[in-house]
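Figure 3 (text version): structure tokens given as input.
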């Protein structure tokens, strides 16, 4: 895999300045402390740039090397691990969860691996009263999930579920014998030379780590603390930089890691029991938007004072990543805005 850094010609300067103006304006409007931007066009890295502060207290500037938290953008990596195990014959997407969790409720017999990947399994989100400041073992987390009744029959509806992906992480551990983060490190991050990408940790020294923030009555505050183990689940607990996401994008573009048919499964809206695509157009770890000749696959993430987004415009050879260190900054709007500046046909009303 080769990443090319493209030197922008003079004719591109106008759009470059427009992007700078747009980013700075959105940061001011949304009160975003810091932002990191990646633009890849036709396999060439056209821009990696930091804006604002990665740490407001220390007045540390954002650079392309700045490390942000992934939030739910991490789900596409968990989905990749599952697809790898499926290609190796260690599981199938049609396996019922009771194959891996024999003591699970009887209702789990109808929930298949593909249902968790696509948020169609009837799983819900963290229950009221869940203590995010407590350390849990995987078994304890699994028991919490097992106690929650399914919200609907598997495959009948679509409902975003962090607990579904949390369960996938435990399943990956059972099937592979490795903690899912270690499997990703060995099978994805190291081979792709994604040197900053890893499971969140507070104890390790992480160079260029950004601080996360939230707005409380318009005033900037630090992120709320959660326990170390809650920060290691497969629903989205990674660190990464835009430089690493450029390598990830190149691997996706070049069809590395898994077979093309597996990528197509990930990037195709999952069909419900009625034979229709789920209403959100979700595949496996990706939202899929059919925009005619401008297909877009993407995912946003939000966690602990960070909001991030990756949008890949497949037909336009364009990938845009926006990482911010502010809760609720809606970076998907910003990626779409940048796309519209670069390719006017991608400009559209708010979705």
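Below: residues designed for each position.
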């Amino acid at each position: 895999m080769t990443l090319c850094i493209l030197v922008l010609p003079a004719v591109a300067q106008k759009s470059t300045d427009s992007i700078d103006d747009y980013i700075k304006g959105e940061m001011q409007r949304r009160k975003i402390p810091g932002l990191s931007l990646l633009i890849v066009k036709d396999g060439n890295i056209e821009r990696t740039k930091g804006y604002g502060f990665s740490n407001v207290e220390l007045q540390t500037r954002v650079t392309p090397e700045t490390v942000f938290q992934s939030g739910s953008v991490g789900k596409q990596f968990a989905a990749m691990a599952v697809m790898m195990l499926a290609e190796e014959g260690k599981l199938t997407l049609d396996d019922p969860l009771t194959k891996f969790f024999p003591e699970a409720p009887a209702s789990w017999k109808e929930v298949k691996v593909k249902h968790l990947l696509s948020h169609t399994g009837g799983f819900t989100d963290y229950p009221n009263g869940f203590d995010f400041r407590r350390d849990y073992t995987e078994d304890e987390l699994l028991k919490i999930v097992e106690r929650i009744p399914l919200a609907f029959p598997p495959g009948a509806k679509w409902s975003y579920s962090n607990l579904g992906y949390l369960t996938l992480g435990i399943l990956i551990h059972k099937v592979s014998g490795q903690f899912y983060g270690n499997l990703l490190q060995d099978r994805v991050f190291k081979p792709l030379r994604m040197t900053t990408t890893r499971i969140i940790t507070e104890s390790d020294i992480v160079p260029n780590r950004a601080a996360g923030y939230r707005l409380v009555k318009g005033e900037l505050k630090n992120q709320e603390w959660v326990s170390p183990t809650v920060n290691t689940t497969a629903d989205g607990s990674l660190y990464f930089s835009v430089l690493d996401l450029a390598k990830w994008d190149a691997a996706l573009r070049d069809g590395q890691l898994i077979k093309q048919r597996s990528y197509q499964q990930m990037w195709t809206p999952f069909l419900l029991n009625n034979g229709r695509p789920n209403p959100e157009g979700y595949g496996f770890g990706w939202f899929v938007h059919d925009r005619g000749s401008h297909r877009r696959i993407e995912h946003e993430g939000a966690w602990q004072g960070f909001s991030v987004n990756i949008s890949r415009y497949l037909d336009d050879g364009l990938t845009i990543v926006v990482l911010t260190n502010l809760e609720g900054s809606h970076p998907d709007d910003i990626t779409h805005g940048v796309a519209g500046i670069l390719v006017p046909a991608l400009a559209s009303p708010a979705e």
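The CA atoms of residues 71 and 301 lie 4 Å apart.
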